[in-house]
Specification:
The structure holds 2 protein chains of 2 kinds. By secondary structure, chain A is α/β, with parallel strands linked by helices. Chain A has 11 helices and 14 strands. Chain B is mainly α. Classes of the chains: A alpha/beta, B mainly alpha.
Chain lengths: 316, 291
């Protein structure tokens, strides 16, 4: 038996977030039907779903902003809404507006004070974080003068002040240019390296695909699918190939190597169980007298999966 | 990873500091002080002409002193009534948007997800406004009395208890506005507070008419309206104790507020309890609210 592996993956023994049947009704309208979720500590967790799927309400329930109509949950081992857990949590709200008559420095000091941080530690963090989000030259400027991207970055710094164990990022890359988006990605990577749990709500699926370990797909306020992004990447692959001499016998043989075979003249698409099947596919065709001109694997992107799971109706 | 700490009672003071800073940065305080200064200037000019050009008796004889005292008393109470109104307006204006506005813009989300109690946010703001109003009222009433003293060497009787009663009244309005702001939108808050204030104002008027007509039923209708919002009643009590003893003894009305029926000291106790209850309501509403 190998010795205990160094801690490079999520710590599966402790859960940062655990909910059972969280439900929220606003009058007759059910915003979240029943959210049951487990996020291990140290994981970067993506929360995906169409608009109106109840994502923001779900996050608000986790953070104690909105009281659930039913169900229960824990954050960092504390019941939802508990003050002790909030000391270890960072939160970047969606569509936030901060007190824009504060300077960047005053703004971070305010939030550090609310975390109850001691002054020396707060000062050190403040300098570190302003540097991290590249706003040091603007520290004395009023937030009112900040661009949307700068506000998003100062908001991110605010969410990291207390070196949280769990960070909620609600659309962290909205309003950011490509440089800003890369910054957010790098920050998330650093957080993961430090063992911080990240709960990421983003519409930018490509971002999620790069940064997250696991994703939950939400529809009508319920988790409809949990996917491990590593298996998603390594999993089923759709292949397009162009070849001549594709007799019915050859095509029938292809159905043994993969499934969902569709032939259109010289072009065939089929799904194989992984990249490892590709050489066998090529050998088979050549061995059965076909001339192979092209063989192109197409990874199932997160976007494809999203549309497959959520549907094109947007889940409404 | 550093040790975590919980925001203690300091969180309340952090919010209080933020409230001062907001009043200063958003020029709310500046606007109020400029307006107040303009009022004091106007009052000073008017008072100067009343004392010099209206042919008031200037001698030291008892009748002259008495008459002058009556006129000064009347003018001071009139000035205080205007200051009372300015302070109430400031109380309602600063408190109306504070919770409702931060809830509607989502600003409050980053605050309440910190390890603070929601009550600390409400109490921190309350404390900030209470200090702001105290400073404003002290400067305005102090300025008024300085002008009067400089021009006529006159001082209102029971000045400190009287001004403290006016302060209590403005605190009641501010607290009520905060409670409404924790429940309704900014605009609805304005409507609720202005509506209740109007009710109390009319109720106070009804009570006085009832007293003049010697009709206890009408007086009671007025008193009940004062129970809904005791601000006018507290002001009338303040005006009464600051009225010159002569006028009090003669049962004369003085000042712009017609004090025929004097609210009892019990009404002051009621107003203080009312304030605490409404503050509790503000905290409760904010605690329960989905943000």
């Amino acid at each position: 038996m190998p010795p205990a592996a160094p801690r490079d993956g999520p710590d599966l023994t402790t859960l940062a977030i655990e909910t059972t049947g969280l439900r929220k009704e606003f009058g007759d309208n059910v915003a979240v039907r029943g959210l049951t979720l487990q996020v291990p500590a140290g994981e970067v967790f993506g929360f995906l779903g169409p608009n109106g799927a109840g994502k923001t309400t779900s996050i608000k329930m986790l953070l104690g902003l909105v009281a659930p109509s039913a169900g229960s949950g824990q954050l960092l081992g504390q019941p939802l809404g508990e003050r002790a857990a909030r000391a270890k949590i960072g939160f970047l709200p969606e569509h936030f507006r901060f007190h824009d008559w504060l300077t960047a420095e005053e703004f971070l000091t305010l939030h550090g004070n609310l975390y109850g941080m001691a002054l020396p530690r707060l000062k050190a963090r403040l300098a570190e974080l302003l540097e991290l989000v590249s706003l040091t030259p603007f520290r004395k400027k009023n937030l009112r003068t900040f661009s949307k991207g700068m506000l998003q970055r100062i908001g991110l710094a605010q969410a990291l002040l207390n070196e949280p164990a769990l960070v909620f990022l609600d659309e962290p890359t909205s309003g950011l240019d490509p440089v800003g988006r890369r910054l957010v990605r790098d920050i998330i990577r650093d957080l993961r390296a430090k063992g911080t749990t990240v709960f990421l709500n983003s519409h930018l699926l490509s971002e999620v695909e790069i940064t997250c370990d696991r994703v939950a797909f939400i529809k009508h306020g319920e988790v409809v699918r949990l996917s491990d992004l590593k298996t998603l990447v390594e999993g089923e692959t759709r292949v397009t190939l162009r070849a001549s001499g594709l007799t019915p016998e050859v095509l029938a043989g292809l159905a043994e190597l993969g499934h969902d075979v569709r032939a259109d003249g010289a072009q065939v698409t089929l799904t194989v169980s992984g990249e490892a099947d590709l050489p066998a596919l090529a050998r088979y065709l050549v061995g059965h007298g076909s001339d192979l001109y092209a063989l192109t694997p197409q990874k199932l992107s997160l976007e494809d999966l999203f549309v497959q799971i959520v549907g094109t109706d947007g889940g409404l | 990873m550093g040790g975590y700490s919980m925001a203690g009672p300091n969180a309340t003071l952090t919010i209080t500091r933020l409230t001062f800073l907001e009043a200063a940065r958003r020029r709310i305080a500046l606007a109020a002080f400029v307006l107040g200064l303009a009022f004091l200037l106007l009052f000073g000019i008017a008072f100067y002409f009343v004392t010099t050009e209206t042919g008031l008796p200037t001698g030291d004889d008892p009748a002259g002193t008495l008459l002058r005292g009556q006129v000064y008393n009347f003018l001071c109470l009139m000035g205080l009534y205007a200051i009372n109104f300015l302070t109430i307006a400031m109380a309602a204006l600063v408190a109306a948007d504070t919770l409702a506005g931060e809830i509607s813009t989502g600003t409050v989300q980053a605050l309440v997800t910190k390890p603070v109690r929601r009550a600390q946010i409400v109490l921190g703001k309350w404390l900030g406004f209470a200090v702001l109003l105290a400073v404003y009222l002290a400067l305005m009433a102090g300025g008024l009395m300085l002008i009067v003293y400089a021009l006529a060497q006159y001082t209102l009787p029971n000045l400190l208890p009287g001004v403290l009663l006016i302060y209590l009244e403005t605190l009641v309005i501010m607290t009520l506005t905060l409670a409404a702001s924790s429940t309704f939108s900014t605009l609805a808050t304005g409507g609720v507070v202005f509506g209740l204030w109007g009710l109390a104002f009319i109720g106070g008027f009804v009570e006085q008419v009832g007293a003049v007509l010697n009709n206890p039923t009408v007086v009671n209708v007025g008193i009940i309206s004062s129970l809904i919002l005791p601000t006018e009643a507290v002001f009338r009590r303040a005006a009464f104790i600051m009225t010159s003893p002569v006028a009090q003894a003669l049962g004369l009305m003085n000042g712009p507020v017609f004090v025929a029926s004097v609210p009892s000291a019990l009404m002051v106790v009621y107003a203080a309890l009312y304030l605490l209850a409404v503050l509790g309501l503000a905290v409760r509403q904010f605690n329960r609210r989905d943000l």
